[in-house]
# Entry
Amino acid sequence: MTTAMVPSRLRPGWILGSLGLLVGAIAVAAAVGPAQIRAWDAVAALIDRLPFVALDTGLTDRQSDILWLVRFPRIVLGGLVGAMLAMAGAAYQGVFRNPLADPYLLGVAAGAGLGATFVIVTGAGLPLPVAAFGGAVLAVVLTYGLGRTVRSRSTTSLVLAGVAVASFLTALQTYVQQLNAETVREVFAWILGRLSTNGWDEVIMVLPYVAVSAGTLFLHRRLLDALALGDEEAAGLGVPVRRVRLVVVAAATLGTAVAVAVGGLIGFVGIIVPHTIRLLAGSSYRIVLPLAAVAGAAFLVAADLVARTVMAPAELPIGVVTAFLGGPFFVLVLRTTRGVA
Amino acid sequence: MKRIAGMAIAVLFAACTASTPGATTSEPTPTTPSTKAIAEAVYPVTIEASNGPVTLAAKPQAIVSLSPTATEMLFAVGAGSEVVAVDEFSYFPAEAPVTELSGFAPNVEAIAAYEPDFVVLADDIDGVVGSLTDLGIPTVQMSGLEVQTLDDVYAQIRALGMAVGHGIEAEELIVDMKASIEESLASVEPRETPLTYYHELDSTFYTVTSSTFIGHLYSLFGLENIADPADVDGASFGYPQLSEEYILEADPDFIFLTDCCGDTIQTISARPGWDDLSAIRASAVVVFDDDVSSRWGPRLVEFMRGIARAVSEKDPT
# Structure
């Protein structure tokens, strides 16, 4: 573990490159969609919304509504969810020093799934995102409670507790789902992931959580680098290991829970994006966290673009797209950058 | 399914004209056969079902139905008193003996515990048809997936009626249904430019295309489905999930909802961008009973009346 060999400063080229990717993805996503709106008009409508800019877009009221109330909120939500999942994935991988750790490691997905299924099945008055969020947080609290009762200083007990909680909650979720076969389609639609928006409501709802979670993770980027050396070494450097770990896990969980609440279980983003950044730009968390946020946003905006256009006017679940695009892309990066990480 | 109708009628005639091998009931008198005599004379009867030909040696006395549609058909043809158990969703008509039996996760032991001499179901899940047949229980599958037209529905009613010894009532039911549906269709004026519709299955914009049975029913009224371009190749089996922006752009003349998910004209007009859709402005939003619009049974006449009412109330343009 020689950190001196690894670049730890974020080079401006990478920032500009990833931002360019994000802007490009947003522009294309704004321009293209199942509704027959001319691409330039759509982009103009997006630019028109920027402060101090007024463009004559020549769109009908209905077209403006489609863009402003349906297409744009979905792009923004995709960006927020993608950024959040990628950052949370990177943070989990750092805290658990496990390259396979993903945002759903501690049972978030199973808990959210149970909450969502419960609401879909009972038609309870609770909004689905709130129930999914509640289930996710409950699952992680359970995992933490279980993991702590095992007297062990390693993080292994926590990961194993996560596995136990996840399988238990998944069993419960499947049971509730089987009892109510008529809502299976809705449950599966949610599990496969879908960026559904009700205008800007979801964006406004997730924004504070994403800000707190992403901000906290970003502030811990140096401590995560220290943690990567090992618990003993980090403690030797004066890092309060247990506290840092708790705060980072809590922040990543909060972010994941809110992402899952509005997007369903979108897989692969939390693993593929951080690893791609590590392979290409460097493995310091000072590089990985900010770049993962931007690249994760760009990736999910692009994936959702595919989800809503490839079969237009029908839709494909976004989880299918992330897996389909993410898997091969990741293999490509792995093969072409051998030795960097 | 057309084949079933043909087979069923052929069997009926064969039974009436030729002597039935193994039948212990007296031959119908050649002069004036009563309906009762015809109905009882057909055994053993063979009907064509989704699982192939099924032969019944005698009139069933203990029927188990795991299909809500079949339950409605059985009661409508007057076989209700022979039905001993129905699945959890067969709650129509109210007198149906609902049990905890499931058509989605069927349990052979639990079904056999009712000692049925006839089982009807819609889907052959986990090989349940084979298991029941192995137990010597005549089992008939009446699949909804094979129903493409109203004739397919009538064929299932006819075959089921034959199987349970209520063939005459089945024919009467079919005649009534045909008359009612004819009346609904006739009440709608033909239009030069077809009216368009969107049939929402749930709030994630799952819908049906014209290639489905329900879509076919709408097209009988000359309505055009906005979802048809979404599943041209049939990859979604006629049940695509639409993009919301596409629905808004297509601006259908009618929006048909089911009462599955608690949506009404109020809730959908609260969706961003939906309030100035033509269908919502013109109050051309119809909420159907989810069971009526998802079953292919006798209550289809209500569904057809609902469409007819909505379409005829629409101002001519």
Remarks:
- Chain A is about 70% helix and 0% strand.
- The mean pLDDT of chain A is 85.
